[in-house]
Write a structure and sequence with these properties.
Elements: H1 25-35, H2 38-51, E1 55-57, H3 64-86, H4 93-128, H5 141-152, H6 179-189, H7 194-205, H8 218-225, H9 229-240, H10 252-263, H11 268-282, H12 286-293, H13 297-307, E2 330-335, E3 338-343, E4 351-353, H14 355-362, H15 368-405, H16 407-412, H17 422-429, H18 433-440, E5 444-447, E6 450-453, E7 461-463, E8 469-471, H19 472-484, H20 494-503, H21 510-519, H22 525-528
Parallel strand pairs: 2-5
Antiparallel strand pairs: 1-4, 2-3, 5-6, 7-8
Length: 535
Amino acid sequence: MSIGLRQDQRLSITQKQELKLVASPQLRLFLKLLQKPQLELREYISQELKENPVLVEAEIGVQEPLSSKIKETKEEIKRLAEKKKALQEKTDKKSAKEKKLLEDRIKKSYEHLDRLQRERIKHEEAKESSGDNAIIAQFDSQHFMEYYSRMRGDEGNGVRHVENEPPLVETIVSKGESLADHLLWQLRLSDNTPQEMEIGQYIIGNLDANGYMSDLTTADVAATLEVDEDTVERVRRQIMEFDPVGCAATSARECLAVQVKAFFPENKLLLRLVEDFIDLLEAGKYDAIETALGIDRDTLIKLVNTLRQLDPHPGAAMSTEAPGYITPDVFVYREGKDYRVVVNDDGLPKLRISSYYERVLSSRTSTPEEKEYIRSKIQKALDLIKSIRQRQQTLKQITESIVRFQRRFFDKGTGYLEPLRQKDVAEDIGVHESTVSRATVNRYVYTPRGLLPLKFFFNSGVESVNGADVSSTAVQAMIKTLVEKEDPKNPLTDDQISEILMSRGIKVARRTVAKYRAKMKIASSSRRKKIKGLI
């Protein structure tokens, strides 16, 4: 068998010139660090300190009083934030005033924290400039190994033990009783058979955060445990009567019905309202309910007020999930008529190359293998230090660009947010659009307008009558304001909202209003309709 070429086919060697971007190790490291949130960056640096012997944390000797002040300020911010969170559900004037005072105190605390951190940075820089880079002439391999061992920690795991230091709070604070623990305690006190105990434990172990048996049916439990379905249902109803009442229910209707039977056993009308007309109540069809139950408006108002005393999420009150705290990656402060951007460096250690290994590298007695090893580690350490600086500088440049584009927002509020693309910021600071995208994912900035994700500032535009674009976020803010100020008895329809915005020079179709309303989790006009006395 032979392979031949046609006359129009030829084998040839050609040269082709093309421009191709090849990411260097330094660039790849920078992009990797750029995507890391601050907490992950700290962990990464900590790991590098353990693995690279030439990389050390700068011995800056920060004064203890300054460190204590920074710690106290952070604790104060956390305490104030928890107090503010506790007031979120309250809408009275006194609570609103107290929230405003807390916001002012939190802002001042952040500003104080920034001053302390800048003072610490100045102290660190002064110490670094006085470092010793002298070269020694001799190298002792035994001393080299002892020095390396001390750096890595005596325990061999990179963690140094500090005597007379109190344990971390996380290691001594007791965990609160969970919903499952509370229900299991009551189950054990009940007079149940071993089979019923097993069923009860299985049900309790599969309840969601609100206490519902949402992802499980009695048939599922019966099939899994190979028991009778009636027995499963009997145990489930027993658990529903435990404290908090209503857990193990399969719906809000069932949960509320169990609570009515437990707390208002004589109120048959309330039980009928929950079991048969809860959907009509949610839809605001009060006339239909009054007709079906044969009651007047005053009686319905009393029933609704009683219903509000019940808890449709009985398990949520016993949730042991820790509250989530967001650490800002960047701060934006107002200074007179201008704004200043400060990148949050808190917790990021100042890194430098060990002067000891610099001396070893220059020693005549060091072997070529030792020098090559140290040289490679020094290069890796320098790449890390440079990439961290570049990351912080890029984050600052992006935020400064956002402040320039969104100046009217910072001055006047959400209604003045401008349409902005990541491409606009990238062109403004001279980087690729993907760099801006990486830098803004899961990043938060503390501003005079509150704590906001950096992605908040990027949004599409809605065309106005005069041809200029209006930020979609600003339009959503307008819709929210209109709904908040509407007549509860005659809420605005999507068509009416569209007409109002059109009269203000903003072209927004009814379907767009509906889309924005759904995005903000605002109910339709029919569901928002409220009758006086039922508010």
